[in-house]
């Protein structure tokens, strides 16, 4: 059927669920290789493999303390009771029954033992599939866990019972059989599948399968990836496993051994189905974009259009005969309307009148319905596809549309724009990541590789031609507890890329750019001249302890300090004037107007003190940077450090022991002291509960007030749980880029279990 509305775009979400590696005392020794990688097919776009590493058991102990504290706090019980309290008595009884039943089943599963040796997760995106008039892409996922043979069998039985119970409860609630659980065998594995009732043996996108093969449990969402993994496990597949491919081996050749975990993300493997989806969407966009040009002799008679609207309504209600009768009446009023002729073809085909449908379709094309893309994709015409007459009509429509140069040119411009956009992710080849443990520090190293020839992509200059950052520690004082230095992106190159993309759209793009230039002239602000010409993009962020808390300083590298200062002052004046004008209509906005005065700190000549809604800032430009800080002393300290008048971060013993110092040219480096991580979280939540309590007192509705009070009570119980996150020391990263790939090294440092504050307190309490 021909409609005037746009087609909806089908979306999809990628959900990755990975089990934590939580080994217990009976765990097997560390394996020499992650053997489950041999059960992952080579064409997946994501693969995550992990193994038990005894060196990381201290982390298991730490997280156990947190989960135990959460359990003892009663928060989970409170949340369940709060949720249930909003239900009727019958619903509450049903929820209690389900909670008890599923708690028992889940309790029978040994989640820790399931992957006590190693685990692997893989995901593949299938090709786009046409569903009705739309298209869908479904992820195919498999999770593999190796434990002991006895443990695998027990877990398989427990997981199968969970599936059967879920199906039983859903079917009971629906009062009909919606889901079915079916057992079978495949490649030496016993499997149990949960799928739509009546779909056994069919390849449908929604299914969950549990399998056991020796000491391996496999959980699949979808069918094909699980089947291939089981075949590889059994040695019965002719396909390669991912770890046997040269591409995979090359990705990890220059990375350390993955003692804990390794991840491989194949950007090109994901891009292939995404390109297919993009082409489908492009076809729909093309059809809609071409409609006004390709469909001639339509919408000429208001009376006929009104009746056609009634026909469309009947079509939407799937009353195809009524739709056909109505569209005939519209046709009698205007027999030259090509749209009406096309809908006559569609409705005739839907009621089984195929010969008449072909005749109407032929007349529609002759009358001006030159839209081969629509004719080819419209499932209303499915019953006509295999006929010689349909193929001849389609060929005629394709020939006629090529004779319309305006429509063809517009289609080509749309396609170029889509190809330009898809070229951005197309530059990336793969991401390879490994993690390993040294003492009480967990390291991760990652390579993000570009495809050969990526430097020729028009988007490459945005990030690929940036000069390396020099002297990362220049502005970082010894006292800093955290900092970040980044090379950023080339903002001018990004702006040029966007301009070129719009310009590439042809006359419409040129018109849009002309309007944009006019807006800039009207506002007396040119993006290139007044912003991008003096901003370089490199940035520095520093956090420094102060007597009354901490101060933050942000620095943006500029080409000309004097210009930056002038632009800053002009911006502050413009904002103040604008807010004052708004305050004339809404006095409340007056509080947000910046109050500007010269900085009183003699070390900061030319800087301004700025007060916005009781929040003090100091702003200015110096030493090639635009600077905004929450403390004048902190800003001055950073500038003194750059001049060599104040000791730098290399004099900080904590950073030198726990941070990462980049070697040579680099793109970014960061360090965060996290010793107060749990304390700060707990304090923040406590403050939220306190201020929330004062706000609740003013709620007039008693039911809402009672609900809010309960939620605040739960929030208050969370504070001591978060305080248990006291085992972090610091984290650091350093990133380099050689024009072809990024290399990132990160480390998280943890407190030695023997010196952990909570443990020391427990020991003192025992004494």
Secondary structure blueprint with pairings:
Layout: E1 46-51, H1 57-73, H2 75-85, H3 89-107, H4 111-114, E2 118-125, E3 129-131, E4 134-136, E5 139-146, H5 149-174, E6 179-186, E7 189-196, E8 207-213, E9 216-221, H6 224-233, H7 246-252, E10 261-266, H8 267-294, H9 302-316, H10 320-333, H11 338-350, H12 354-367, H13 372-377, H14 388-402, H15 405-426, E11 428-438, E12 441-450, H16 461-464, E13 482-486, H17 491-503, H18 507-523, H19 527-532, E14 535-546, E15 549-558, H20 561-583, E16 595-598, E17 608-612, E18 615-622, E19 625-629, H21 632-643, H22 653-658, E20 668-673, H23 677-696, H24 702-722, E21 728-737, E22 741-750, H25 757-766
Antiparallel strand pairs: 1-2, 1-10, 2-5, 3-4, 5-9, 6-7, 7-8, 8-9, 10-11, 11-12, 12-22, 13-14, 13-20, 14-15, 15-19, 16-17, 17-18, 18-19, 20-21, 21-22
How would you describe what is shown here?
Among the domains are: 35-65 and 101-267, no CATH class; 295-419, Serine Threonine Protein Phosphatase 5, Tetratricopeptide repeat, CATH 1.25.40. 46% of the residues lie in helices and 21% in strands. The chain is built from 25 helices and 22 strands. The strands form 2 sheets. It has a 20-stranded antiparallel sheet, with helices on both faces. A two-stranded antiparallel ribbon has the order 3-4. A hairpin with a 2-residue loop joins strand 14 (535-546) and strand 15 (549-558). Helix 1 (57-73) runs antiparallel to helix 24 (702-722), helix 17 crosses helix 18 and helix 23 (677-696) packs antiparallel against helix 24.
């Amino acid at each position: 059927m021909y409609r005037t509305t746009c087609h909806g775009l089908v979306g999809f979400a990628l959900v990755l669920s990975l089990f934590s590696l939580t080994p217990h005392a009976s765990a097997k020794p560390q394996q020499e290789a992650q053997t489950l990688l041999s059960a992952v097919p080579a064409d997946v776009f994501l693969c995550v493999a992990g193994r038990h590493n005894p060196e990381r058991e201290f982390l298991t102990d730490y997280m156990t303390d947190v989960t135990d504290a959460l359990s003892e706090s009663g928060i989970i019980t409170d949340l369940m009771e709060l949720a249930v309290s909003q239900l009727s008595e019958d619903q509450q009884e049903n929820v209690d029954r389900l909670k008890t039943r599923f708690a028992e089943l889940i309790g029978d599963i040994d989640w820790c033992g399931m992957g006590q040796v190693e685990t692997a997760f893989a995901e593949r995106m299938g090709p786009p599939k046409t569903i009705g008039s739309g298209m869908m892409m479904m992820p195919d996922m498999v999770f593999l866990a190796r434990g002991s043979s006895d443990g695998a069998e027990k877990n398989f039985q427990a997981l199968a019972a969970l599936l059967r119970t879920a199906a039983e409860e859903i079917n009971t609630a629906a009062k009909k059989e919606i889901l079915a659980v079916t057992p079978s065998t495949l490649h030496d594995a016993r499997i149990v599948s949960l799928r739509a009732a009546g779909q056994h043996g069919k390849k449908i996108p929604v299914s969950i399968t549990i399998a056991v093969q020796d000491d391996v449990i496999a959980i699949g969402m979808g069918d094909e990836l699980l089947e291939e993994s089981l075949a590889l496990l059994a040695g019965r597949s002719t396909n390669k496993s991912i770890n046997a491919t040269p591409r995979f081996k090359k990705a990890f050749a220059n990375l350390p051994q993955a003692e804990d975990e390794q991840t491989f993300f194949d950007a090109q493997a994901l891009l292939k189905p995404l390109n297919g989806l993009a082409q489908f969407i492009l076809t729909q966009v093309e059809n809609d974009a071409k409609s006004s040009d390709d469909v001639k002799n339509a919408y000429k008679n208001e009376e006929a259009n009104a009746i056609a609207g009634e026909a469309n309504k009947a079509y939407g209600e799937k009353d195809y005969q009524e739709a056909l009768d109505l569209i005939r009446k519209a046709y009698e009023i205007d027999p030259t309307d090509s749209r009406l002729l096309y809908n006559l073809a569609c409705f005739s085909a839907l009621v089984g009148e195929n010969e008449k449908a072909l005749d109407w379709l032929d007349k529609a094309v002759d009358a001006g319905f030159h839209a081969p893309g629509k004719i080819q994709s419209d499932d209303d015409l499915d019953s006509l596809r295999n006929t010689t007459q349909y193929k001849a009509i389609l060929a005629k429509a394709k020939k006629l549309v090529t004779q319309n140069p305006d429509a063809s040119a517009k289609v080509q411009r749309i396609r170029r724009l889509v190809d330009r956009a898809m070229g951005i992710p197309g530059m990336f080849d793969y991401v390879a990541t490994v993690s390993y443990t040294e003492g009480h520090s967990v390291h991760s190293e990652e390579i993000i590789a570009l495809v050969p020839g990526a430097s020729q992509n028009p988007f490459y200059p945005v990030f690929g031609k940036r000069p390396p950052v020099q002297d990362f520690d220049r502005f970082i004082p010894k006292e800093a507890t955290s900092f970040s230095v980044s090379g950023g992106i080339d903002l001018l190159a990004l702006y040029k890329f966007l301009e070129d993309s719009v310009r590439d759209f042809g006359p419409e793009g040129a018109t849009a750019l002309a309007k944009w230039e006019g807006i800039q002239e009207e506002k007396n602000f040119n993006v290139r001249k007044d912003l991008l010409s003096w901003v370089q993009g490199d940035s520095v962020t520093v956090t420094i302890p102060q007597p009354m808390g901490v101060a933050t300083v942000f620095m943006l590298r500029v080409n000309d300090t004097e210009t930056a200062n002038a632009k800053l002052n002009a911006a502050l004046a413009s904002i103040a004037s604008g807010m004052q004008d708004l305050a004339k209509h809404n006095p409340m906005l007056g509080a947000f107007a910046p109050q500007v005065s010269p900085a009183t700190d003699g070390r900061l000549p030319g800087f301004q003190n700025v007060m916005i809604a009781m929040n003090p800032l100091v702003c200015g430009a110096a030493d090639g940077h635009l600077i905004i800080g929450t403390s004048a002393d902190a800003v001055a300290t950073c500038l003194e450090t750059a001049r060599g008048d104040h000791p730098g971060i290399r004099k900080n013993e904590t950073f030198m022991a726990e941070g990462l110092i980049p070697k040579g040219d680099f793109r970014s480096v960061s360090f965060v002291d996290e010793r107060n991580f749990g304390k700060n979280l707990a304090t923040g939540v406590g403050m939220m509960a306190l201020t929330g309590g004062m706000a609740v007192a003013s709620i007039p509705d008693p039911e809402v007030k009672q609900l809010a009070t309960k939620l605040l009570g739960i929030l208050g119980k969370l504070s001591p749980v978060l305080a248990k996150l006291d085992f972090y020391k610091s984290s650091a990263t350093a990133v380099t880029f050689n024009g072809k790939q990024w290399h990132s090294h990160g480390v998280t440092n943890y407190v030695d279990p023997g010196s952990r504050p909570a443990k020391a307190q427990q020991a003192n309490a025992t004494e």
